[in-house]
């Protein structure tokens, strides 16, 4: 008789940010392992996801807690934190260890959080709470499997990440790109030959998710999906250019705008509400009604769109997954485009493997320029990209699905 498997997950999936929670739900659906532990830094939101998507699973959510006297933000400013610093800071080490002792594998869910953006003061505490279960698992000689992660870029925090990842005894390092992540992983001491490729955790979507009924049906016919979390002051300063874009795509192509926020407040909803008062031929998806963007709704709205304009990486992932043209705007992180260039082109290279394509038809450097580019070259963009969703693309989808399944079979199931 086969032993009943039990796995744990750590990662940023407690954020109300579409890609982060969508990835862990998709992974759980694909693994079909019923007993799951989610290590979290924000259980209230995760409880909502549990109720809405994971009622068929035995889910235990364990909060990772730090001692009150441990000010990780101040500590990280003055010295390089090591694994032992994080372990000593844990308030509930015994609780985490007790739960961890019953697990077969700890999965480090996919995402782009092993980099210098996440070690900055506004994210270092959450990153450390993601890392803490990894270190406890390591103490207990548990296997640690990183799924579709990307790595880097790193600055003067390379030793922090190097100390953490090179301390692991039994680990599988999964990377969702073959572009720059292997190079940056090497920078922190990871052998390139030990890295296993697995596509992004949300590129091959489980049919149980795609077959779900939409939560908030939108009555809109021919439209583009637009997303941005540009600062409101910047949008207000340039609102005339957004108006011009809205008018042009409606007059020239008969397209309305459906604004699709990926996060609450300034992460998308504030922008959606502002545009409502300024743009014609415009509507928005109100994620305040549910508290987050439902996975099934996002997939269907992007699938039925004529085109997507977004600065979110997972808007690109979904668009490529369902065969919708996309103009993806690369944001600056740490002063340049390396972070998003790696993630976005890395994803394009996987979906369009062995297909000749011009990166400039997909990736733009500035949001306002992207609006102008889309307005002037809409037919070119959509024609070229739809032609790229050909038999080779379909073969790539099949191969990537197989690579994902093979990774899970070898390392988790």
Would you kindly provide a brief summary of this structure?
This protein has 17 helices and 14 strands.
Question: What does it look like?
Answer:
There is one protein chain. The strands form 2 sheets. Strands 1, 2, 3, 4, 5, 6, 7 and 8 form an 8-stranded parallel sheet that branches. Strands 11-10-9-12-13-14 form a 6-stranded parallel sheet, sandwiched between helices. Helices cover 46% and strands 15% of the residues. It has helices at residues 18-31, 43-53, 72-78, 83-89, 93-100, 124-139, 158-166, 181-187, 207-210, 232-237, 239-253, 269-276, 295-303, 313-322, 338-351, 367-388, 391-411, and strands at residues 6-10, 35-40, 58-63, 105-108, 111-114, 143-151, 171-175, 195-197, 223-226, 256-259, 282-284, 308-310, 326-329, 363-364. The model has no long low-confidence stretch (mean pLDDT 96). It starts with 5 loop residues before the first strand and ends with a helix. It is globular, with a radius of gyration of 21 Å. Strand 12 (308-310), helix 14 (313-322) and strand 13 form a beta-alpha-beta unit. It is α/β, with parallel strands linked by helices and 413 residues long. Helix 11 (239-253) packs parallel to helix 16 (367-388), helix 13 packs across helix 14 (313-322) and helix 14 packs parallel to helix 15 (338-351). It contains 17 helices and 14 strands.
